[in-house]
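Deliverable D5.2: sample structural annotation.
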Amino acid sequence: MADEKDKQQKQEKQPKQQPKGEKQQKKQKAPKEGQAAAEPKAEAAPAEPVEPAPRARLWDFYDQQVRGKLQQQFAFKNPHQIPRLKKIVLNVGMGDASKNPKGLDAAVAELAAITGQRPVVTRAKKAIANFNLREGQPIGCAVTLRGGRMYEFLDRFISIAVPRMRDFRGLPSKSFDGRGNYTLGIKEQMIFPEIDYDKVERIHGMDITFVTSAGRDDTALALLRELGMPFRVEAAGAAA
């Protein structure tokens, strides 16, 4: 009997445990008078979809007019035989890139401004002792353009850059490689309007290669001529 009385006294001394739900309700303080309850944050409005850039003007001109003229001129039966421009490659050679790394960085920045695409640094594939050239040494930079950027660059090159050449009398039409690809050498990068005269450290040239799907020089010449390339009249007539 004494043991049962002791147990009852201990239970009376211990505080009664409250359920968890009541404890959580007490912890939440009621808002003070004059203060409204905190409202949930408004959800961020979804960003508006970005409109796609308009298609290159020269690309539409090729699809609407150039393809039909070439098919009629060469009597292509299959539309896949009609030549098209596949890519444009711009290459800048810097033989003293190892001695003048800042010059290579400037050429990379200028080529990126001209094309709107970051160039790739080209490196030597073989070591040549006579030229103090080691394998893997940086020797220039290059950019390959396709699609819309290719047609946009060609449009700017024909309408803006070419007329700014010194003593320009037309582009040579004998610079094809026999497979429908045309390579043009430029002596100064200053003909491009993206280049700032005050920031140019060194004048250098570049090679521009127009790669087509023609496979023949005559069809490739007709393609580039229809796109607006200003070839020399006499040389073009002799080649034709």
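Annotation notes: The beta strands are 85-93, 120-123, 138-145, 182-186, 206-212. The two ends are 127 Å apart (CA to CA).
The annotation will be released with the project's public dataset once the embargo ends.
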